Amino acid sequence: MTTSSRVALYLQDAHRISEGMEFAKYAESKGFEAVWQAESRLVREATVPMAAFASVTSTLKVGSGVVDCWSRNPARLAATFSTLDDLAPGRVLLGIGAWWDPLAAKVGITRSKPLRAMREIVTAVRALLNNETVTMHGEFVHLDGVELDYVYQERRKKDVPIYIGATGMQMMELTGEIADGVVLNYLVSPEYNAQAIEALQRGADKAGRSLASIDRPQLVVCSVHEDRATALDMARLMVTQYLGQQPHIMKASGVPQTILDKVGSVLTWPATHEQVEAAAKHVPDEIVQMLTASGTPQDAREQVTHYMRNGATCPILYPLGDVRAMIDAFSGWSPSL
Fold it and tell me: Could you give the domains of the chain?
């Protein structure tokens, strides 16, 4: 595929892993570049499905979208992704993020100084994957002469690019400084990307890097149906839940405060399905269309192109509804940039 037509698939926990394996094979057959597996909630750990997807494909890249930086020791994190690279050499992408509250707090993790933690962890993991012996006495990382201690295998550097799942602008700037790429968030407006690109550029400037050297795939919720109203309704519940969970990001994306207030007055955390359905009545079609690529196949392609024009390098499509229909809608796709 050409650089302009890169496209990837995103899977959470809506399907059995065996189904995800079939989707991965189908996406590969249709020219997709990668499949990214979510690990945002305590439902499905990312690396087991990644191994499953890698085992039934031969060219498709497999990424974590994203593991958190707190719950795995950086040495174990490096060993895990080194193992995945043994299974699928050159096809593994390490996406890592700073997680979110209240979930982190509920499992006993204090997300203090996430920028410092991310810098130390990414630095240590990259060095270990590069076959270096690492000593680091940081605030969060404590390693004393640690290396990936091969016994039988050939010692080699592992080609595992590190992507930071950044949302806030300080983390975005750090990403531009230290990471191979960023996983731009979903359910943001394309215009939100403008400030993200500026922050990435500031970070790149600090490190003497070019913005072009930083890959910028973006998660995009994609609801495709020949009937536009059906497609919008499929996406509305997810948009509503996110409006309640991440109102600061939604405000930055241009969602009116009046809508955020109405949704917030109905939802608790964790929200029940009944609450989400009730709150969804306050979310108009134009907000769903602004935050997702939803509608007919042509509608979805046009909105994804809008994200590409605003700095994304590759859409990571999160399918709602018929996964194969969405893959078909973007097979051979080439945006007009």
Answer: 3-224+293-330 (3.20.20.30), 227-292 (no CATH)
